[in-house]
Amino acid sequence: MRIVAAGDWSIVHLDPIDRQLRKLLAAPPEARRAEIDFTDISRFDTAGACVLARTATFLRAGGLAVDLKNISEAQRILIDKIGRGGVPEPVIHLSQPLYIEFTGRVGEAVRAIGGEALGMLGFVGAVVVTAGRTIVHPSRFRIVPFMHHMEKAGFDALPLVCLLTFLIGAVVAQQGAVQLKQFGAEVFTVNLIAIIFLREVGLLLTAIIVAGRSGSAFTAEIGSMKMREEIDAMRTLGLDPMEMLVLPRVLALIVALPLLTFVANIMGLIGGGVVVQLMLNMSPGVYIQRVQEAIGFWTFGVGLVKAPFMAATIALVGCRAGMAVSGSAESVGAQTTRSVVYSIFLVIVLDALFAMFFTAVDI
Amino acid sequence: MQKGEPIIEVEGLVTRFGDNVVHDGLDLTVKRGEVIGIVGGSGTGKSVLLRTILGLKTPDAGRIRVFGIDLAELPEEERRLHERRWGVLFQDGALFSALTVAENIQVPYREHLHLSPELMNELAAVKIAMVGLKPAAATLYPSELSGGMRKRAGLARALALDPEILFLDEPTAGLDPIGAAAFDELINDLTETLGLTVFLVTHDLDTLYATCDRIAVIAEKHVILIGTIDDMLLSRHSWVHEYFHGPRARAAFAGK
Q1: Which of A279, B159, B222, B230 has the maximum number of C-beta atoms within 10 A of its C-beta?
Q2: How many Å apart are CA B111 and CA A75, to the nearest integer?
Q3: A300 shares a domain with A171
Q4: Cross-chain CB nearest to B119 (options A18, A85, A328)
Q5: Are residues A242 and A314 located together in one domain of the fold?
Q6: pTM value?
């Protein structure tokens, strides 16, 4: 049996050659000797060597004496180098039956949720301990980072929060007015806006904006510090990252979110007021009076009481996700996504729990 | 193309970042088939030179010809064709993090060629064995590899298309001495068997000594000296003298 290799045996033109050789080897002709002729090869690279080395190895395994004719020194070195460990095992792609894959993923997700819950609990505990220590030694409280984060998470968020709540207030008023008009009850649009904003929407909207804006920033900041081993460096210098990074952020958000919520409520009411004046011709003076009649202290209180809890949730989730970053840059991205998803999820769950609680105590 | 003819020619290269002039009229010629080491103090623009030759940074003045062609003047399509003729190993391997080692090596196959999956897998396995990784590394993701393994995998990807020129940016930085020595040997092996031209940016005196045919020293915004190790040792230039006669250099060259 004689194989004449000729022309370009570089990777660019190798695919048809490889198919041909595979076909040949699938049904090898009866022979005792095989000769591979290298004379007319014009270009030869590792890919060509790989294919020929495999062919030769296969033929030898079939009991043939293989002769490489007119092989140049460079070609021999290349073939020897590749054939040194025999033909390497093909790359295996692990794949499993669908049902194993599926149940495996479900199990993994359940375990991950359990681990996450435990980890979060531990983290909350650690923050509480740190907070306790800071209360005992108030001088250890980091006032500068606290103010810095108040500014970044609170003050800098004002334009966005104002604009969005103003618009949502206007939209709610407009939709409410159109619907209520059908019953001739359009004056109650004011009650709708006031109650829905002060109790729920003002806070919820602000919390979601802050989770997307500041919760993610907390994760990214702490995460990239973790990645660059800054947090380990802090520990070796005897500094407590909980005290320096986490506590100021958590407290800053706990103070900032209620303030933002207050502004959001006002902006929502203004947005509603503008629409009410345009659609129902209600003057600002009457609007303010109607708002006062519509709400009591607790309408406002319910919204504001929830704010610090949501703030703590967002900040804790954000900081913990940052601390959970491991080594690589992509893990910062993954944790940031998780942090936003978790904090928005938890904010809404928390809101639902509060709604049940306030219904139970009749507020 | 013949061995010994110029394969990379840099003429009068000027690069700056704002007011900071990195290269001012830098000339360098690399010959086909040689291993050239680029040395210079930190911040002298070794990596910048490499990136400029690769076309990742546009030169502010001067001409760069690779394979005898000024790639900057070619239309996009043709340039891509020539870019397949070199392979690059970045400092930390620069593997695509979403792909396994084998998939990383197969990226150029998938993008540029039409190969059967069996052949691609086989070639990936060959490259993996060639750079001294275990077959099991094929299915691992970059985040699961050590620094040395990442460099080897990066090298395997750089070699995927059997390039004519191999650019290496600090290939032994961060490796342990055994790993670094194995890497030197690997480079020697590859240049011998594949006839590669290697453009090597390094600080590692052992690597310079073990692998390079010629060394180019970048200082004062130029290539101030180019030649063999012996030329370096004879140089009177203060920085070159200090570099090749310092305590670390003496240790590296001792007994060789």
Answers
A1: B159
A2: 27
A3: yes
A4: A18
A5: yes
A6: 0.71
| Domain coverage including residue A51 | 2-83
Strands lying side by side in the sheet with B20-31: B20-31, B6-17, B61-66
Q: Are A321 and A246 in a shared domain?
A: yes
- A298-353 tens-digit pLDDT: 889 999 999 999 999 999 999 999 999 987 788 899 999 999 999 999 999 999 99
Task: Write down the mean pLDDT value for chain A.
Answer: 89
A353 and A251 within one domain: yes
One-letter identity of residue A198 = L
Determine contact: B162 vs chain A, CB below 8 A: yes
Look at residue A104 and tell me if it is in a domain: no
Nearest residue on chain A to B133, alpha-carbon basis: A88
Cα→Cα distances B137→A128, A321, A329, B105, B147, Å: 44, 30, 21, 12, 13
- CATH number of the domain bearing residue A22: 3.30.750.24
In this structure, the answer to whether residues A336 and A240 fall within a common structural domain is yes
- Provide the domain count of chain A: 2
- Overall size of chain A counted in residues: 363
Q: Is ipTM over 0.90?
A: no
Residues from A in contact with B at Cβ < 8 Å = 10-12, 14-15, 18-19, 22, 45-47, 50-51, 54, 74, 77-78, 81-82, 85, 87-94, 327-328, 330
Residues A77 and A149 in one domain: no
Which segments of chain A does DSSP mark as H helices, in order? Answer: 14-26, 46-61, 73-83, 98-136, 143-149, 158-181, 189-196, 202-210, 216-227, 230-236, 241, 247-280, 284-294, 297-323, 329-360
Model confidence at A12, pLDDT cuts 50, 70, 90, reads confident
- Closest CB to B116: pick one of A15, A54, A82: A15
Each residue's pLDDT expressed in tens, for chain B with a length of 256 residues: 456 788 888 888 888 888 888 888 888 888 888 899 998 888 888 888 888 888 888 888 888 888 888 888 888 888 888 888 888 998 888 888 888 888 898 888 888 888 888 888 888 888 888 888 888 888 888 888 888 888 888 988 988 888 888 999 888 887 788 888 888 888 888 787 777 889 999 888 888 888 888 989 888 888 888 888 888 888 888 888 888 888 777 777 765 5
Across the interface, whether the CB atoms of B143 and A328 are under 8 A apart is answered yes
**Which positions in chain A touch B129 (Cβ < 8 Å)?**
82, 85, 88
Q: For residue A136, tell me if it sits in a domain.
A: no
> What letter does residue B5 receive in the DSSP assignment?
S
Amino acid identity of residue B42, one-letter, is S
Beta carbons within 10 angstroms of residue A31's beta carbon: 14
- Within 10 Å of residue A234's Cβ, how many Cβ atoms? 16
Q: Tokens in use for A56?
A: 């030769």
- Counting one residue from A and one from B, how many pairs have CB atoms under 8 Å apart? 82
